[in-house]
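Record 1 of the preview.
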Amino acid sequence: MEYEDILYQVESPLATITLNRPEIKNAFTLPMLASVERALRRAVADDRVKVIAITGAGGSFCSGGNVKDMASGQLQSWEMKRYLWEHVQRVPLLLEDIDKPVIAAIDGVAYGGGFDLALACDFRFAADRASFCSTFVRIGLAPGDGGAYVLPRMLGRSKALDILLTGRVIRMDEARELGLVDRVVAPERLLAEVQSYAGEMAQWPLPAIRAIKRAVNQGEKSDLRSHMDYVSSQLALLSETPEHLEAVNRLVAGQREKK
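->
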C-alpha cells in the first residue's frame, strides 16, 4: 500500500491530502505521518499540482498525538524525542521548505499537534463549526511540532502565550477575530471553497508562484538588502522562463489591438 491512514488525490491544479483515521479524530499514527511526508513530496514534484490542501476525514481535522500511546509509556524520555524528531517534526519542517501554497482545510477539531499542523500551512480555511486548542499544557507537555514558534509570529507574544498557557478551546468567532483563519464557510462548502481559491492562484505561472513563496520565506529571515539581492537573482531566472515571455508578449499584442 502506497499510503496508510491518508487519502491522496490530484484534481489539477489541486492535490488533496486527507488524514483518514476518523474513528480517532485523525490523531497521528506513524504510518499516517510517513504517508503525509511522501504525499507532500509527490505533490511538490508533480507539475500538474500548483496548490496543496491538507484536510481530515469524518468531520475532524486532526486531534494531534495519540494519547493512548503516551499513557502506555511508549512515548517517554528518548522515545518521545525520537517520535518527534524522526516522525512528527519532519512534516512541519518539510512544509517550511515547500514552495507551493499549502491550505489547511479544517472541519471539526484541530487540537494539539493538529493545531500545530494547521499553523504550519500557508492558509487556514475553516468550517464554521471548527475549533482550535493547544492541548499540550493540559497533559503536562509543550508544543512539539512548531506551535510555540509559529503562533507568536502570527499573533504576537501575549496572544500566543494566552492560547498556549490556558489550553482553552478557541471557537470560530474568536479564531476569526484573532486572525487564526483566513476564510470561514459552511462545512459542506469547505472543500469547494479550497478548490475555487486554488484555481485563483493556479491561473498564474507555476515558476512565479514558487518564486513568490520562496521570496516571502526568505524575506522573513533576512534584512532588506539581502532580500533585494535574493529577489533580483530570482527575477533574472524568471525573466528567461517561457511563461514570462509568453505573458509579456500577450500583453504587448493586446495593447496593439486596442490601438
